[in-house]
Amino acid sequence: MVPYPTTNAALHWHILNAKYRVEKYHKDIGVIIPLDDEELKPLMTKALRRYFNVLRSNEKHIKNVENYLYGTMQNLFGVWWNKQAAREYAAKHPNDERA
C-alpha cells in the first residue's frame, strides 16, 4: 500500500504549488486561478477523489504519491483554465468557427 501525504498541510502545499506553477507558466497571458471559483471547486473535489482511489487501488503503482498529486492538480488547473479561455474567446468572437 502506498502511503498518503501525511497531513492536510501537505495536500494544500501540493495543490497550491500546482496552481502557482500553472499561473507562472502562463503569466504572459494573465492566467489567474481562483481556488474559490464555484465551477472549479467540484472539479478539485472530483480530482482528489480520483487521486485517492488510484492510491487505494492495486492496479496502478504510484512511486511518488506527492508528485502524482502535484501532477494531477497541475493538469486539472491547466484544463480548467483552457476551458475558461475557450469560453471567453467564444463569447468575444461569436462568428468564429473555431469558437
Any overview of this molecule?
The chain is 64% helix and 0% strand. The chain has 99 residues and is mostly helical. The chain has one domain (8-92). The model has no long low-confidence stretch (mean pLDDT 85). This is Replication initiator protein A C-terminal domain-containing protein. Residues 15-82 form the Replication initiator protein A C-terminal domain. It comes from Loigolactobacillus backii.
Ends apart, CA distance between termini: 45 Å
Helicity range of the residues? 55-70%
What is the number of helical segments per DSSP (H or I, 4+ residues)? 3
Following the backbone from N to C, one meets helices and strands in this order, namely: HHH
Biggest sheet record? none
Coarse shape: elongated
Briefly summarize what is shown.
The chain has 99 residues and is mainly alpha-helical.
